[in-house]
Design goal:
With about 220 residues, the chain is of the alpha+beta class. It has a domain of about 160 residues: minor pseudopilin epsh domain (minor pseudopilin epsh fold, 3-Layer(bab) Sandwich), CATH 3.55.40. Helix content is about 35%, strand content about 25%. The chain has a five-stranded antiparallel sheet with strand order 5-4-7-8-9, with helices on one face. Strands 3-2-1-6 form a four-stranded antiparallel sheet, with helices on one face. It is elongated, with a radius of gyration of 33 Å. The termini are far apart.
Length: about 220
Amino acid sequence: MDSLAFTKNLQHQSRRIFYRNASKTPTASEKGFTMIELLVVIIIIGVLSAIAAPGWLAFTNKQRMNAVNDAALNTLREAQREAKRTKQSYSISFKTDADGVPQVAVYLAKDSKGILLPASSWKKLGENQEMPKGTVLVGTNLTGVNTAGSSLTPLTGNQTQPITFDYQGNLSSEYNSPNLGPNNKGLIVSVALTQSGFSGTKRCVIVRTLLGSIQTGQDNQCIP
């Protein structure tokens, strides 16, 4: 067989193979996923989501708790700075709104003796953080102006007794003699998840000395 005949024969065989393959009916794998396969994938995704959701929720709530604690720390420092800057006594109080969301107010101490602060004085703690109702629990050991008690009291709708800084940024003795409580634990603002309460994981801010030293703590450090 010469080369020309061989080439023609090869072309003829190639055309036969091409047309035979083109006329084949696609197999199940060539058609794509079957309904059963899709259902299996959906079930697997559902199971994985159910496993991951509680862990993600716990992580998110812990981040909210940390954000509220950071906000309490920053606001206490803000009150102390304003007292030093203006050479006037400044106070800070906490409360919760009707939805159980913690709030804070910084104000001139002389403007609030014996009166409730107006609604415009309050802002949400962790105001840039989404805070579903009843997620975070905030409490203090304040029993009077700059006076520490021996237990944490959860915030209610009423404003707490204030923490007041004098013109030097120290705990003011103008309205009440500072009393940091037994063992000098300090004035404590504690934050926990509502679900576990103050017996669970906690974060806190502590005004520990008469000089207005502000520190953060966690868990056992947050117990008066």
